[in-house]
Amino acid sequence: MQQKIIILDFGSQTTQLIGRRVRELNTYCEIVPYNKFPHDDPSVIGVILSGSPFSVYDEKAFRMSLDGIRGRLPILGICYGAQFMAYTNGGTVEPAGTREYGRAHLEKFDAANPLLKGLEPSTQVWMSHGDTITSIPSNFKIIASTDKVAVAAYQAEGEQLWGVQFHPEVYHSVQGTELLRNFVVDICGSRQDWSAASFIESTVAALKEQLGDDKVVLGLSGGVDSSVAAVLLNKAIGKNLTCIFVDHGMLRKNEFANVLHDYECLGLNVIGVDASAEFFAELAGVTDPERKRKIIGKGFIDVFDREAHKIKDVKWLAQGTIYPDCIESLSITGTTIKSHHNVGGLPEKMNLKLCEPLRLLFKDEVRAVGRELGMPEHLIKRHPFPGPGLAVRILGDITPEKVAVLQNADDIFISALREWGLYDQVWQAGAILLPVQSVGVMGDERTYERAVALRAVTSTDAMTADWAHLPYDFMAKVSNDIINKVKGVNRVCYDISSKPPATIEWE
């Protein structure tokens, strides 16, 4: 039986980070809404309560009962989770005099406590809260303090129940992983047998049982997720998988041919469809980015549906949906942030059953599975690329001429990142065609041509991102090459906006 840590999500932005840190300890975990604990699941070995945007004393604060969990399984509360357990057991939580945010140090802690074993004196932790625990229940004991926070961590006397006011899951908590290892491995008893190899073995067996001799169709995008899903399915069902790769005309330069070649080398049964003329016709004159996305989304569904119906007896639609897409916010906040289907509407339109073999994996785990499957590094390390492609990197209306200009500028930028050994240091990069023209001089002639912006960011999960500090001599070379080699461009800018407040993509 696969051991499991359950993370109860109270709505924190870092809940997924907790999940990733637990998975990095080779331990399987699932994130579920705070009020959906699987009481009848015998594979659960421990419980973590996440942070939350609410205060525990708010009327709208998320509350649940630990009955049936407390005393049976080890529990760790993080930030709101710690405040919740203290508050509901008779402790006091009050607004802090000032918001406690940023680096802090554990000036005092019980080094003999199993949760804090191996931590160094004055170890750095990350605080992010507007409330603080001012008193703990009579049967709780303080096990760590900072110079400003008396109750930085506590344990219930004689119980496997802990709370920490700081966030061990974030990188700024220097020994956060050690603390989580103490809880997950030493306290909960994880065997640490969750790995890419074990995932492939169990998933291939499950796919064979789920699909039998049924035929499956999968829409490839050229990205990491759909590519790994295809190779995994191919390992399980072979010739019964048919992949469809649609070119909507807004892929990167030569990407359609290059990706098709990669897929054929992997032994996949792939149908390539050049539908660019259809998409350009539908997009003519459209400038609103949301309309662009909807037109491309609907166009993809129509083309995919048409091609899939040429294949007889298909019963399943496979998608490269991954775990962050599947974590439902609906049960927690009452609203859905985004649909988790990669190709919204296709399963219903085609009357097919849905197969999502990667739905339990985070992005870094998808890459690990790809490596274990023997996929080439250039496919595994590909930067994220928007589904609508260059359509949302051309500000204003879309024309084949604009796409060609952007493809050439983008190709110079991305190729240079690879040549200079910078590609793997960047999370995502690309060129954006701006809806402005500027004056320039080429030779003895005055020019009035397009401006291109370059965008490159560093990130670990795309939730936040910083602009990549690329070398000046690299930027000078790229700018010079674009202006000299791409007809119609006479100015290159570099976007130095971070996320937040900006987003990674411009549209």
Automatic annotation (TrEMBL):
<keyword id="KW-0332">GMP biosynthesis</keyword>
<keyword id="KW-0067">ATP-binding</keyword>
<dbReference type="InterPro" id="IPR029062">
    <property type="entry name" value="Class_I_gatase-like"/>
</dbReference>
<feature type="domain" description="GMPS ATP-PPase">
    <location>
        <begin position="194"/>
        <end position="382"/>
    </location>
</feature>
<comment type="function">
    <text>Catalyzes the synthesis of GMP from XMP.</text>
</comment>
<dbReference type="InterPro" id="IPR014729">
    <property type="entry name" value="Rossmann-like_a/b/a_fold"/>
</dbReference>
<dbReference type="InterPro" id="IPR001674">
    <property type="entry name" value="GMP_synth_C"/>
</dbReference>
<dbReference type="GO" id="GO:0005524">
    <property type="term" value="F:ATP binding"/>
</dbReference>
<protein>
    <recommendedName>
        <fullName>GMP synthase [glutamine-hydrolyzing]</fullName>
        <ecNumber>6.3.5.2</ecNumber>
    </recommendedName>
</protein>
<keyword id="KW-0315">Glutamine amidotransferase</keyword>
<keyword id="KW-0436">Ligase</keyword>
<dbReference type="Pfam" id="PF02540">
    <property type="entry name" value="NAD_synthase"/>
</dbReference>
<feature type="active site">
    <location>
        <position position="167"/>
    </location>
</feature>
<dbReference type="Pfam" id="PF00117">
    <property type="entry name" value="GATase"/>
</dbReference>
<dbReference type="InterPro" id="IPR017926">
    <property type="entry name" value="GATASE"/>
</dbReference>
<keyword id="KW-0547">Nucleotide-binding</keyword>
<keyword id="KW-0658">Purine biosynthesis</keyword>
<dbReference type="InterPro" id="IPR025777">
    <property type="entry name" value="GMPS_ATP_PPase_dom"/>
</dbReference>
<dbReference type="Pfam" id="PF00958">
    <property type="entry name" value="GMP_synt_C"/>
</dbReference>
<feature type="binding site">
    <location>
        <begin position="221"/>
        <end position="227"/>
    </location>
    <ligand>
        <name>ATP</name>
    </ligand>
</feature>
<dbReference type="InterPro" id="IPR022955">
    <property type="entry name" value="GMP_synthase"/>
</dbReference>
<dbReference type="GO" id="GO:0003921">
    <property type="term" value="F:GMP synthase activity"/>
</dbReference>
<dbReference type="InterPro" id="IPR022310">
    <property type="entry name" value="NAD/GMP_synthase"/>
</dbReference>
<comment type="pathway">
    <text>Purine metabolism; GMP biosynthesis; GMP from XMP (L-Gln route): step 1/1.</text>
</comment>
<dbReference type="InterPro" id="IPR004739">
    <property type="entry name" value="GMP_synth_GATase"/>
</dbReference>
<comment type="subunit">
    <text>Homodimer.</text>
</comment>
<dbReference type="GO" id="GO:0005829">
    <property type="term" value="C:cytosol"/>
</dbReference>
<feature type="active site" description="Nucleophile">
    <location>
        <position position="79"/>
    </location>
</feature>
<feature type="active site">
    <location>
        <position position="169"/>
    </location>
</feature>
